[in-house]
Every structure is written in structure tokens, then in C-alpha cells.
Amino acid sequence: MVSPMDWSLIAVWRDSGIPLHVALRGIDLAMDTFQAKSSRGSSRVSTLFYCHDSVMSEFARYVEAHVGEKADTAAGESDAAVAPGAVAGEGLEKTEVQQFINERIKEVKALAERQTAGDRELDGIDRVLARLGEINEDIEKASQLDFEAIEHDLSILDQILVDELETLVPSERLTEWDRESKKELRVYKKRLPKETFQKIHQNYLRVKLHREFDIGELSLFHL
User: Fold this and answer.
1) Measured between alpha carbons, how far is 5 from 88 in angstroms, rounded to an integer?
2) Are residues 72 and 103 in the same domain?
């Protein structure tokens, strides 16, 4: 179990292209360091932010170690050798992806019906539903799935969905979430680059919106 803020940090690692095995190694090293420094039972780590510097250091080492491999890939080597596990959906079956998308369609349709009953129409919701249906049809026809292209399309649709959901939340609630996020991040603000801080803040609000309306995030990373 992780907090919404920790989940937002995980999303930043994902968006930065950090492979899973690199993130796990960084976490392991951070915890080894913590255990070596702390006395037995005197304290504990309660957030993944403690591991952020270690994860980023491991990723920097990983990138440095693989410099030049992109060129080798162009000569015929597999992309998986460059960044194992970096592509969302790798190893998934077609039926799993279709089921995931169908579940999101049901959730978004339920939201659309609730809003229609309230005499409020949201064009973005209709666009998301139409495109999700098209993606499912394309998957059904495809002999081999392009997970990167699917993830790209889902990412765009998720942003459209989030923008629409934001209009349904009272401004007071949005302000409250904004304060919560900045309060939790305050301790780490000086240690995080401005861009990373902003991404975590935005991801936190994204998670809040999805949970508020009980709609899963449109990303294969959640499969």
C-alpha cells in the first residue's frame, strides 16, 4: 500500500523512463543505507520519497552504462536490451488489454450517464468514449499490438478525461487538494528539481480526480 503522493512519485519515475529493475535497485540501496544508519527499531521509512535520490542515482548509472546501445539497436539489436521493462504493456495478452479498456469504458459511461441525468453534457467525455471504442476495434484487428502507440493514445485520452473531471469538482475541493499536495511535498521541495516537483503535484491531483469519480487511470501501467 502506498499513499497518493507516493503513487504520484512512482508516476514521475515511470514518465522519466526508469525501468522497473532500476527503480527497485535504487529502493533496495536506499533501504540498506537507512538500516545501516539507524539503530534497531528506533525509526522507520514511511514514504518512497526517502528513496528518490537513490533511484535517480541508479538511473543515471544505468543510462551511462547503456550509452551507445541505441546505435547498436538500429543495427539490429532488440530495444528490450536497451531498456528492459520500459515499455508499458510488454508481455500482456490482447484479451488483457481489451478487458482493461472495456472496464474503463464502463466507468466513463457510468459517469456520462450521471452527468446527463444532471442536465450537464461533457463533450470531452464523448470524445474519450468514442476513441476508446476505436482503440479496442484496432486491437481486435491487429495481429501484433503496438503497446507504445496504445499507451500514447491512452495518455492523451486520460488528460482529456482529467480536464473534464476537474470541471465537475467544486473549486473549494480543488483548492483543498492543492493545499494538501503542497503541504505533503513541502519537506521535499528543496531536494526536488522544480520540474519534478510540479509533475508530482500534478500527478497527485490526477490521482485524486480519478479516485473521486471511481475511474481507473487510462494507462497500461495499471494492468
Assistant:
1) 21
2) no
Q: 217 vs 12, 100, 132, 155, CA distance in Å?
A: 15, 10, 13, 9
Model-level pTM greater than 0.90?
A: no
Q: Is residue 4, in this structure, part of any structural domain at all?
A: no
Count the neighbouring beta carbons within 10 Å of the beta carbon of residue 124: 16
pLDDT, tens digit (0-9, with 9 covering 90-100), for 21-78: 999 999 999 988 888 776 655 577 888 888 888 998 998 888 887 665 554 444 444 3
Q: What's the domain count of the chain?
A: 2
Q: Are 145 and 139 in contact (CB under 8 A)?
A: yes
Containing domain of residue 177, as a range? Answer: 94-222
> Per-residue pLDDT tens for 83-116?
444 455 556 788 999 999 999 999 999 998 887 6
- Only one residue has cell 503496438, namely 146
User: Are both 76 and 133 inside the same structural domain?
Assistant: no
**Burial code of 127-155, b = ≥16 C-beta within 10 A, e = fewer?**
ebbebbeebbeebeeeeebebeebbebbe
